[in-house]
Amino acid sequence: MTSAVNAVNYRTRTGPLSASFLFLLAGLCLLSACTRKDIDLSFAGQTMGTSYHITVVTDAGRFPDGIEDAVAELLDRLDQSMSTYKPDSELNNLNRLAVGEEITISADLWQVLQGAQHIHALTLGAFDPTVGPLVDLWGFGPKDTGDKIPSEAEINALMARVDLGQLRLGSDNNVTKLAEIDLDLSAIAKGYAAQQVAALLKTRGFSNFLVEVGGELQLAGLNRKGTPWRIAIEVPSLVQGGIEKVIAVSNIGVATSGDYRNYFERDGVRYSHTIDPRSGKPITHNQASVTVLADTAAVADALATAFMVMGADKTLELAGQRDIPVYLLVKTADGFQASYSNAFKPYLDGAE
Question: Where are the domains of the chain?
Answer without folding.
Answer: 59-350
